[in-house]
Amino acid sequence: MPEKDEYLTRYFDVMHQTTTINFSRTPMFRDSVGAHSCVVVLTSSGIVGTHSHLTVSDDPNLFARNLSEHTGPAPTILVGGWGKHKYSRLLFEILQTTLPEYGFTLSDHDVLGDSVRHTTLLYDRVVINKLSIQNKSWETNELFF
């Protein structure tokens, strides 16, 4: 496994997709893309939320700084990442450290394992529909900010 700094330099690129949701206009945001080896970062202030789908080639440090400048710190939930993918695990671990450095509070997470996750962001929670790759069965989970 590459050293942390080598990994960030070599594998991460400055690319990420972030959707901003104003909950007074839109009660929820449903992601049409499932998180497999990616990590989805979801935030909610109760008024404004963000949904960001990061791949293993995104720069988590730059992402955290940009998100902090865009919305300001907020309660945060991390979803996704496949446990057998070492770069997903590393991305998740770096986000767990980096986001709090920019003022984000990690409320909860549902990551790793053998599931593809689809998320729905609401003002107070995230609804996760997980498809187990091994069992081919669906499970629903809710995490609260």
Helices and strands, with pairings:
Elements: H1 4-11, E1 17-22, E2 28-30, E3 39-44, E4 48-54, H2 60-71, E5 75-80, H3 86-101, E6 105-111, E7 115-122, E8 125-132, E9 138-144
Parallel strand pairs: 5-6
Antiparallel strand pairs: 1-4, 2-7, 3-4, 3-5, 7-8, 8-9
Task: Describe this protein's structure.
Helix content is 25%, strand content 40%. With 145 residues, it is of the alpha+beta class. It has a single domain, classed as 60s Ribosomal Protein L30, Chain: A (2-Layer Sandwich). The longest helix has 16 residues, at 86-101. It is globular. It starts with a helix and ends with a strand.
Largest sheet: 5 strands, mixed
Element-by-element helix/strand order = HEEEEHEHEEEE
CATH topology: 60s Ribosomal Protein L30, Chain: A
Number of strands: 9
Rg measurement, Å: 14 Å
Q: Into which percentage range does the β-strand content fall? A: 35-45%
Principal-axes geometry comes out as globular
Short description:
By secondary structure, this protein is α+β, with helices and mostly antiparallel strands.
Which features characterize this protein?
disordered N terminus, 3 helices, 9 strands, 145 residues, alpha+beta, 4-stranded antiparallel β-sheet, 60s Ribosomal Protein L30, Chain: A, 40% strand
